[in-house]
C-alpha cells in the first residue's frame, strides 16, 4: 500500500514536471512573445546620407507607444527595437542577425531600403522570421513570395509608380522628351522599368537615362549629362540628398523641364531644401496624408497623428516620413490583432496576407490596405500631387498602382 502511494506520488510528480516543462517549451516556442509583450526589430538610417528616412521608424515607434498606453494587443505591449544601419546593407545584415539570434525578436518590421532588405531576406526566410511591411517599394518584395514566403512589402511598388507617371505623361504630354536620373540598383531600376512598361510603344520618348552610385558624393555630372539631352521632362528617381541635388543642379544649369520626383524623395521636409524655382510644378504620387498640407487641418487621422507626435516624439518634426511610419505601424497592429491571442510567426504571416483594412487613419481616404496570399502589395492605390508655392497639392482621382 505504501509502495503504491509512493509510486502514485512519483507518477503525479513526473506528470507535473512534464507539464511544467511543456508549458515552458510552449512559452519559448515563439521568440519575442510573452504573456505581456511582443518584441519587434528593425533597422533604419538614423545617421548618414539617408537619415531623413529615420522618421519612418520613429513614427512607427511613437504609434506603438500610443497603442501600448491604450491596452496593447490582447494585453501585450509592443517593444520596437530599431538599430542604426546608416543605410549600409552590410550593417543591416549584422544588425538583423543580432536582433534575431541574440535579442530573439518575434519579427523584423519596417526596415528601410531596397538593398538593405534584400541583404537580410534570405537569412530571415531561412530562419522562419517574418520580414513584415518592408519600407521599400521594390516589386520583388511582393512578387517573389514563393521563394521568400516570410517577406511582404507595404508601400506602392516602384514599378507601379513608374507606370502611373507614364500614363500621366502619355495623357498630358505625349510628345515629351524624357531624361531619367536613377539610383543604379534595384530601387532605381524598378522605377525605370515601370516607366518604360507604362510608355509601351512610346518608350522611345526616353532620350537619356543615367544611373548614379549611392555611395558617390553628388550627382552633378549626371544631371549635366541629362541636361545636354535637351529633354523637356526630368524623372528624378533618387533618394535623400541626391534628389535635392538633382533639383538644385538642374536649376543652376538653367534647365527647367517638367520634373517628376519619386514618392520616397517627395517629403515636404526634403522639397523645401531646394530653391522654390527649382521645385515649382514638380509632380509625384501620394498615398499618405502629408502633415505639412493645410488640407488635412481638420482631419481626424491627422489630428491623431499630431497628438501622438506631441506625446511620444516631442521635439521631432512631424514630417511625412513619420506619418508613413505610423501608417505601416497601424497595419502591423492590425495584423497582430488578426493573428489572435495565440500569437505565432505563422499566424502573423497568415494575417498579413489576408488584410482588408479600410480605415487606416494615416492614408488617403478611399485607399484600402488589401492583401491575399497571392497578392502581397498592401498599398496599391495612389493619387497624383503637384508642388505649388511650397506645398503639395493633390489632384485627380484615386489611381490603381497594381504592379
Describe the structure.
By secondary structure, the protein is an alpha/beta fold. The strands form 4 sheets. The chain has a 5-stranded parallel beta sheet, with helices on both faces. 49% of the residues are buried. α2 packs across α12.
What's the pLDDT, averaged over the residues? Answer: 93
Structural class: alpha/beta
Main beta sheet: strand number and arrangement? 5 strands, parallel
Tell me the series of helices and strands, N- to C-terminal: HEHEHEHEHEHEHEHEHEHHEHHHEEEE
In percent, how much strand structure appears in the residues? 15-25%
Shape: globular
Radius of gyration (Å): 24 Å
Quaternary state, please? single chain
Helix content: 40-55%
Low-confidence stretches: 1-7, 9-27
Counting DSSP E segments of at least 2 residues, the number of strands comes to: 14
Give the termini separation: 76 Å
Number of helices: 14
**Strand ordering within the main sheet:** 2-1-3-4-5
List the topology elements:
Elements: H1 2-29, E1 37-44, H2 54-68, E2 77-84, H3 89-101, E3 107-109, H4 114-127, E4 131-134, H5 140-143, E5 151-153, H6 158-172, E6 178-183, H7 186-199, E7 206-212, H8 220-227, E8 233-237, H9 241-252, E9 258-261, H10 268-271, H11 276-279, E10 283-286, H12 300-312, H13 320-339, H14 345-352, E11 356-357, E12 369-370, E13 381-388, E14 391-400
Parallel strand pairs: 1-2, 1-3, 3-4, 4-5, 6-7, 6-8, 8-9
Antiparallel strand pairs: 10-13, 11-12, 13-14
